Amino acid sequence: xxxxxxxPEDLRRLVHAMILAAGWTEAEAQETAEHLVLAxxxxxDSHGVGxxxxxxxxxxxxxxxxxxxxxxxxxAPPFLIIDGAVAxxxxxxxxxxxxxxxxxxxxxxxxxxxLDSHHIGRIGHYAEVAAAAGLVSFFxxxxxxxxxxxxxxxAREARFGTNPHAIGVPVPSxxxxxxDFATSRMxxxxxxxxxxxxxxxxxxxxxDGQGRPTTDPRHVFAQGLTGDETLGALLPFGDHKGAGLSxxxxxxxxxxxxxxxxxEKPEKSWIINSLFGVxxxxxxxxxxxxxxxxxxxxxxxxxxxxxxxxxxxPVLVPGEKERQMRAARAEIGIPLDDETWSQIxxxxxxxxxxxxxxxx
Length: 360
Ligand code: NAD
What we know:
The chain is built from 10 helices and 12 strands. With about 350 residues, the protein is of the alpha+beta class. Among the domains are: about 1-60 and about 325-360, Malate/L-lactate/L-sulpholactate dehydrogenase, four-helix barrel (Hypothetical Oxidoreductase Yiak, Chain: A, domain 1, Orthogonal Bundle), CATH 1.10.1530; about 290-315, no CATH class. The longest helix is centred in the first third of the chain and has 19 residues, at about 90-105. About 45% of the residues are buried. The mean pLDDT is about 95.
């Protein structure tokens, strides 16, 4: 499968035009286009512009609606509970996190629960938003509206979503620490990218419908299977540890407040995320910024100085890989495989947009 390089600006303009043409507002189009292209720039193609065909399928099915908007259910600082109304996810979650940051600046801490949003994308994005405001953040997210896809530790069938988890810590002297991952060993979207490219996934990531190890990504997509095969599962990262974190993410984000859960049969085909977050002002813990800076810098220098196993691969801290990738892709462009691009072209055409006109 071949791929083409796209300039980030071209993809941003294309996604912006598509979202606007489909009936969302200028601000929603802007936020979503920025978010998706930044995910590609960061190297997370699974959560980049390749999601647009899925969103537009949800729209065409009448499930995702441009006039759906999130609504505050409770704002009693430090608590903030928002009904996500299955509205377009990136603007929905950005609004929740911006409001939580305002509460944390005022109160020292905010506890936010966004219930039932449409897919909110790369969770590290929100940790970056909080870190840019000088705030520490922790986020747990569930994935509902579709069948379970991740097996509990030791199970041969799925019970979880890929339930991501993100933590952001601002570093006063430089770039923040952003730890952001799916609790499956591989994000489902990365298996989709492998499927679209016609490539196998590495061993140890997937089991088939019989619980046997496989490297064939078809086994985690219902549409990839023949009639007599059953859906397989992604495995949790870190065995029982990742599986435990996935279970906690489901309960915190959706289980406490009664949002859509993975154990409910989905009424429609869409991806619903609920988010539970804690945002903290670190100045309430250590008001002296110079001391905070010195402590964090000296610890990060200690970690970076660890001798690498491979001299060509220096030791990184969370968030660095994405920043390196952003610098590289801003130069060379964003690679999109032919299948992903043709899906985007078809989705754009349904709204009267010729995606090829946004290309280099
Ligand atoms: P991943 O396995 O690539 O892990 C990324 C994390 O590991 C980052 O914090 C990164 O900085 C760090 N990292 C990577 N290499 C490193 C190294 N060499 N040294 C130190 N740290 C390193 O991520 P993933 O599990 O594939 O998740 C991809 C994305 O998918 C995430 O942004 C996640 O939020 C998103 N996601 C979203 C949903 C949803 O429903 N919205 C579901 C699942 C995943």
